[in-house]
Task: inverse folding
């Protein structure tokens, strides 16, 4: 989700300097940022749509005071500043909601109604994986975490990464952000490829059915159909190969931690193999104990 | 509002995060010793990455509409998935303009929704592309029974005298969440 930096900055500048046009600039600012604000709780904290609506309404009254505080004289991107503001506003909003919540005891008689069953899904337990990761050396553990779980890096691990990879903290933060973005892009790419494969499968099914219907008539139509089927099959194979191939963008985001991409790949592959061995050894040890 | 422990101004820390700060080396040294600032900058970096990689999903059948009313006029309108516009209402020469109404419109299939303020209450109307026989109802969010239910053949369905609050409108296969607030 992107914000148009120059347009937003010009609308803020018009709002601050413009007298009569200030309301127009404010509504322009709202138009440019409303989808971003609405989706903020969902994108940042995985909240539901109701929270998104409530938060948007909460923010609607505060746009005017927020817009005045933007430091136009500094060379800060609006997005960075706005994320910081939205995070603080969301914390205020959660406190405000807690205050507003009034719990009333219902006096209705529900004796004859069927009871509601609540199923709770258990959260994933990664403790076994984390125990196994502890058996690796620091550089192996951090490179695996940065590549596979970049969002799970703790502040202490950021400092350790800066020491281990001999890079400034700011560089580590930049690489972490780039890997998260590359992972999201990779997921989207995989989703799009799967949609294309399913589209090709539908066409192939129809073509094969038509070929089956023409089985006694081996004329020009049948030859054309077979040629089309071959073309679509080849296209499907190419798409599957695309899906299986490692993502270059993801490795390009990860490589700056090492001297070059080859070393990055080698280090990651070795760390992965070592972790697999440790996991297998620990599983066998658990089985033996039982 | 201070950033972390408050040793550096927040704008300085935001510039550092973007790689534009002149005092990067001093901030780096500070981050190594201050867990508050390090925690906050890590969280903000994560937030930036998450927001940048987020793709808002398009919701076809359940749009959320938000309308704010004040002094018999709609002052702002927002929708999560369909386009929202404020349309001026025509007035007579003596009374002048009568404020605005909100219009939510999307593709050909979805009904067009317009919200007009009448005093402190609202008039919500649904316009469908063709005539159809359907049951339309409006209910307060969380309640079992609808406030109004209409079984009509007309293409326009109107609900009058709606107080500010959160509602759900169901018309045929369409479900619309609408929130009316006082400004």
Result:
């Amino acid at each position: 989700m992107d914000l148009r930096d120059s347009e937003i900055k010009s609308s803020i500048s018009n709002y601050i300097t413009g007298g009569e046009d200030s309301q127009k600039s404010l509504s322009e600012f709202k138009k440019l940022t409303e989808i971003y604000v609405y989706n903020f709780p969902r994108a940042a904290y995985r909240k539901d749509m109701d929270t998104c609506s409530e938060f948007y309404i909460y923010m609607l009254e505060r746009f005017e005071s927020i817009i005045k505080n933007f430091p136009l004289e500094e060379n800060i991107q609006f997005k960075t500043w706005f994320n910081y503001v939205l995070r603080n506003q969301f914390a205020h909003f959660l406190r405000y909601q807690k205050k507003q919540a009034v719990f009333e005891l219902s006096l209705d008689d529900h004796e004859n109604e069927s009871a509601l069953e609540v199923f709770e899904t258990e959260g994933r337990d990664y403790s076994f994986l984390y125990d196994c990761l502890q058996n690796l050396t620091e550089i192996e553990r951090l490179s695996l975490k940065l590549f596979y779980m970049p969002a799970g890096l703790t502040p202490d691990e950021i400092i350790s990464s800066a020491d281990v990879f001999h890079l400034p903290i700011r560089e580590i933060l930049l690489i972490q952000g780039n890997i998260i973005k590359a992972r999201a892009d990779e997921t989207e790419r995989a989703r799009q490829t799967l949609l294309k494969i399913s589209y090709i499968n539908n066409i192939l099914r129809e073509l094969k059915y038509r070929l089956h219907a023409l089985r006694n008539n081996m004329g020009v139509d049948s030859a054309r159909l077979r040629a089309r089927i071959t073309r679509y099959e080849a296209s499907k194979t190419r798409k599957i190969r695309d899906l299986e191939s490692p993502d270059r963008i993801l490795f390009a985001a990860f490589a700056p931690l090492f001297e070059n991409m080859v070393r990055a790949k080698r280090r990651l592959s070795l760390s992965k193999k070592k972790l697999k061995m440790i996991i297998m050894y620990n599983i066998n040890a658990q089985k033996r104990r039982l | 509002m201070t950033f972390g422990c408050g040793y550096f101004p927040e704008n300085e820390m935001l510039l550092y995060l973007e790689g534009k700060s002149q005092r990067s080396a001093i901030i780096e040294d500070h981050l190594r010793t201050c867990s508050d600032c390090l925690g906050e900058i890590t969280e903000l970096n994560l937030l930036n990455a998450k927001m940048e990689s987020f793709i808002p999903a398009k919701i076809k059948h359940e749009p959320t509409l938000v309308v704010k009313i004040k002094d018999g006029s709609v002052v702002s309108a927002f929708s999560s998935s369909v386009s929202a516009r404020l349309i001026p209402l025509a007035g007579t020469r003596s009374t002048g303009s009568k404020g605005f109404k909100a219009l939510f419109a999307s593709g050909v299939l979805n009904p067009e929704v317009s919200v007009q303020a009448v005093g402190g209450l609202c008039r919500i109307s649904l316009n469908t592309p063709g005539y159809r026989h359907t049951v339309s109802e409006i209910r307060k969010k969380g309640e079992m029974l609808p406030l109004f239910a209409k079984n009509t053949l007309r293409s326009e369905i109107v609900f009058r005298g709606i107080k500010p609050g959160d509602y759900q409108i169901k018309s045929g296969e369409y479900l619309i969440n609408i929130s009316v607030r006082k400004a």
